[in-house]
From TrEMBL:
It is a multi-pass membrane protein. Gene3D superfamilies: NCX, central ion-binding region. It comes from the Bacteria. The chain crosses the membrane at residues 66-89, 101-122, 128-149, 181-203, 215-238, 245-263, 283-300, 312-330. One of its GO terms (biological process) is intracellular calcium ion homeostasis. Keywords: Membrane, Transmembrane, Transmembrane helix. It is found in: Membrane. GO terms for molecular function: calcium channel activity; calcium, potassium:sodium antiporter activity. GO terms for cellular component: plasma membrane. This is Cation:H+ antiporter. Residues 2-145, 183-329 form the Sodium/calcium exchanger membrane region domain.
Length: 331
């Protein structure tokens, strides 16, 4: 029964994510935000809602390993998603068709991942009240970083796609009004929020029944399931030829997910959550840092006019992902 509930929640998540991405495409076309900002902020936040409910539910169940593993595992899986689609649509050369401003987001993602990695190794008990000093620093760096990014990309994003192009008007989603898209986006986000809670509760029971352990289930099974909205969002965005929306949703989701460590720490009343988690998450945090660096390299490499053997960075990312997953399983 628990596997059935897990599967049903995953299916509902996928269906809602299709709607979410379609409405996000409308908002990016008909508003002044553009694909980059809608992807990095709006769609990224909405597709990360399952991670929010998963981590907070795990904290409520007093299972810090699932809370931490879900965040890091989801970030790993998100980067796998963009690499896999880049390989599948390699003729389109995804990273060559996106804005160079994504390099700012990717750089902040690497910095946050390295801070998490350092926190995992130190595992300090230092805290303010019950909230760990490490997650407070991570949260502060996120706020500062996202503020700098908004200032650097603000002028470009305010002009991006301000007027609909002929390609935009030929999009199937163009017939949807901006108001309809906004309402539909909120409804789809709420459905995803509920499905995320079911995924966590069922995943916690699977960890108990199978004996796989919370660290592996959180970093792989639940993380992969809660990343389903990102996978569907990227697929739909690519089909709609909105490459900035596709990449922005992944990079933005990874930034948003890291902040869930701070949010989870606030809800975890038994001390700093990172100090209470399993040291196996050091592997996951290190992998996220490495995979994020590969994506940044791909974004910068995409600026070149002549690119030889374009797919190799994404192929390397996929290999590193599965090697890391194996080490998480055996440890």
């Amino acid at each position: 029964m628990v596997f059935f509930l897990f599967a049903v929640a995953a299916v509902i998540t996928v269906i809602s994510a299709v709607k979410l991405s379609t409405y996000a495409d409308v908002i990016s076309i008909k508003s002044k935000w553009g694909g980059l900002m809608v992807g990095t902020l709006l769609l990224a936040g909405a597709t990360s809602l399952p991670e929010v409910t998963t981590s907070l539910t795990a904290v409520f169940l007093d299972n810090p390993d699932i809370a931490v593993g879900n965040v890091l595992g989801s970030n790993m899986f998100n980067l796998l998603i963009i690499a896999a689609f880049d390989l599948y649509y390699r003729k389109e050369k995804l990273f060559s068709r996106t804005d160079v401003s994504h390099a700012y987001t990717a750089s902040l993602g690497i910095l946050l991942a390295l801070l998490v990695l350092a926190a995992m190794f130190i595992q300090t008990e230092a805290s303010i009240l019950w909230v760990g000093l490490d997650t407070l620093v991570i949260f502060g760096v996120y706020i500062a970083g996202i503020t700098i990014i908004n200032k650097k990309t603000g002028n470009d994003s305010s002009q991006e796609e301000a007027a609909p192009t002929a390609e935009d008007e030929s999009s199937p989603s163009y017939a949807i009004s901006l108001k309809h898209a906004g309402i539909g986006f909120v409804i789809a986000a709420v459905v995803i929020l509920g499905a995320g809670s079911v995924l966590t509760i069922a995943g916690d029971q699977i960890a108990v029944q199978t004996g796989l352990g919370s660290s592996f289930v959180g970093s792989f099974l639940i993380a992969a399931s809660t990343s389903l909205p990102e996978a569907v969002a990227v697929l739909v965005a690519l089909q709609l030829q909105n490459h900035n929306l596709a990449l922005g949703s992944i990079l933005g989701s990874n930034l948003f997910n890291v902040i869930l460590l701070f949010v989870s720490d606030v809800g975890f009343l038994n001390g700093p959550i990172i100090a209470a988690s399993n040291t196996v998450h050091q592997i996951t945090a290190g992998a996220v840092s490495l995979l994020a660096a590969i994506v940044l390299f791909s974004v910068l490499r995409g600026r070149k006019k002549a690119i030889h053997f374009y797919p190799w960075p994404s192929a390397l990312l996929v290999v590193v992902y599965f090697i890391t997953s194996y080490f998480i399983f055996i440890f």
